[in-house]
Design brief:
With 319 residues, the protein is an all-beta fold. The protein has no helices and 29 strands. The strands form 7 sheets. Strands 1-2-29-28-27 form a 5-stranded antiparallel β-sheet, with no helix packed on it. A 4-stranded antiparallel β-sheet has the order 3-4-5-6, with no helix packed on it. It has a 4-stranded antiparallel β-sheet with strand order 7-8-9-10, with no helix packed on it. A hairpin with a 4-residue loop joins strand 16 and strand 17. The protein is globular. The relative contact order is 0.13.
Length: 319
Amino acid sequence: MRRAFVGSFAVLMAVFLSAQSGKTYRVKKVGEYPNFMALSPDGNTAYVTSFGTGDLIVVDLATKTVTGSVSVGSEPLGVALAEGGKTAFVACRQSGTIAVVDLTSLRVVENIKVSGAPYAVAVGPKGYRVYVTNYGRTKEGGQLHVIDVREHSLIATVKVGMSPIALAVMPVSELCYVVNGGLNQVWVVDPERQRVLNRITVGDAPIAIAVTPDGKRAFVPNNRSDDLSVIDTQLGKLLVNVPVGKSPFGVTVSPDGKRVFVVNAEARTFSVLPSDLSNLELTSYKIDKGSRDIKVAPDNRTVIVVSEQTNSLLVTDVP
């Protein structure tokens, strides 16, 4: 990622594009070097972190327009929504803070100080805990922070190995699956007991993770080995590595749990495959260069992709 000077809020442009199937729109001028996003519960709004400007950008997906922004801190990355989509928690890497944003008033109501360099954010299924991975400032300084949603306070920290870059929370057990990019492993962490329960070796340079709504499978894109690791969470082991496109980055599972979507950054595509692996023949769609995060709306077919290099969102329909 490149660092950029803070820029002013820009007026949006939406450009109609052609896609392999369905319609695709490019939403331009979504901050500078946008990386990650969260969707509102109804899927109508995307909240995007602008790494270069230090803002959280609000995009109306129905009208394909940028409707607001709020300064959250230096070099924001991961973002997750809590309290029914009313509050955003944003990890600001350089600031070493977690910004708590009231999305109704679009203002920061708290900055929670953590050590090192926070990266990814996830909310537990019960809604009262937020989990944050932290790179730390040294190779061995990786941490998992536990934050109380209502009190906006740091309540626990667990050591989790080298370069914890992403995480997912199981939908029932609230166990955290932490991707340690420096170790090529996924660690299973019990945040309540502050214990590491398992270490699962995946591919080369794992960079993200997504789980099915039932929590039975986890999917991890490996940026250097160009494949997707599939983990059986009940057995606690790797099932298979599925080849995908060049330099996979973002990953998500559709809300109905039936499909997995993977961004292939260097291939400039995202690929789709069934989550039960009943068919390993990928369907791929063209996207912008430098694409990073990916989400699927509640309709299970509207796909939103963040492009860091073009400062835009792509909104596309897939069959």
